[in-house]
Amino acid sequence: MNDTELSEVIAAYLDSHTVLNLATSGPNGAHAASVFYARRHFDLFWFSENSTRHSRDLAMGVGCAGTIADNVDDYKLIQGLQLQGVGEELVETSERQTGLDALNAKYAFMKEFASGPGAERMEKTSLYRFRPLSITWIDNAVSFGFKQILEFEG
Asked: Domain 20-151 has what CATH class?
């Protein structure tokens, strides 16, 4: 498929899933964490406390990677994404608003965080963005080990 078709397949897959398995590396070695995400174009946004290990790793400016996949028991049904890129805490107001808008549009539970018990917890969190350098589409339904890569400018 061409890059336009691949972009559409990846966007639809991102929209139909909710959890990014984020991998970072820092002074204590490799680390993985699952985070709820929402997207704007191909940038992924999530909330996390900046004291978490993955947030501390990202603060060091290291690259990161991630996967998004279904849980299947037949290898022919494996589909998913492998992502490589850069993760960062968002501090600029307009960037934070973009991420917040994406999260609010995807998750009804975000309303709980605007007021009520969730609001207090949200005061301790930061907003992060994963900006991909490449996204690899995996689809064993095409053929075993099928991969196609969408590259982005760094």
From this structure: mainly beta
